[in-house]
Amino acid sequence: MAKAKKQALGRGLSALLQDPTNDIKSVEDKNADKVVGNIVELDIDTIEVNPFQPRTAFNEDTLRELATSIQELGVIQPITVRKIEFNKFQLVSGERRLRASKLIGLKTVPAYIRLANDQESLEMALVENIQRQDLDPIEIALSYQRLIDEIALTQEQMSERVGKKRSTISNYLRLLKLDPIIQTGMRDGFITMGHGRAIININDHSKQLDIYELILSKKLSVRATEDLVRAHQKGETTKPKPANQTSEHVTQSIKEISEYFGHKVDVKMAKNGKGKITIPFHSEEDFNRIKKLVGAK
Fold this sequence. Notes:
This protein is an alpha/beta fold. Helices cover about 50% and strands about 10% of the residues. The protein contains 14 helices and 7 strands. α5 runs antiparallel to α6, α6 packs across α8 and α10 packs parallel to α12.
């Protein structure tokens, strides 16, 4: 009964927002206290996604699971939006809930309404995203970096905002010094943050990739990776590689191809211009991912 009453109230507030004579632009406007900070049933079509959203990847399987849950129980935790113009809103947090609601064809969704400028909206989205438990280390690192670049927060200020030690924030930020292929491997779960923190101690990206491939092929632990990095730093495992027969054009393209597939590809080229590209994979799931990338059915 209480839930039904709350939903009815939310629909009433929604009607209030659709009245142009009661357009709310600031907390001082008439009826602002009835809307701002309250749960309102908003038409999904009036909500646009947040361009500042730090998260770029949404797992389709877990999204469908959430959609099924919403179909059974409804949206238990309202999304948060900010009002940008009359009857138009922008998502601040809760994109998974919004996407899942759209999947099952919901027309409205419960939402908390806030009034915030672009900078405040970005900061809210980034801080809320960092607090999530299911983010990968690179997503967190990128969110910290955006707080530095776009909000001009210091690491000390970020520590206060997100409730994390400054050293923890620093460790995440250092991950962005890894080669993009290794960052992708961490996002896909092929290596852990511990592996990444070990590899980071090597500045040369080509050597980073050599170690990354060894970790994957030999399933090295974090401890074994740390030992391998120390050996590389001492020059114990550095052996001259045979001269590459590939042309300059092909050599320049290898990194681009490697980044596309998320692995360091091996290219061999004969003097007559013929050659072979080898793309490694490390699991059936990884193979299927590469299969999709090459457009195979």
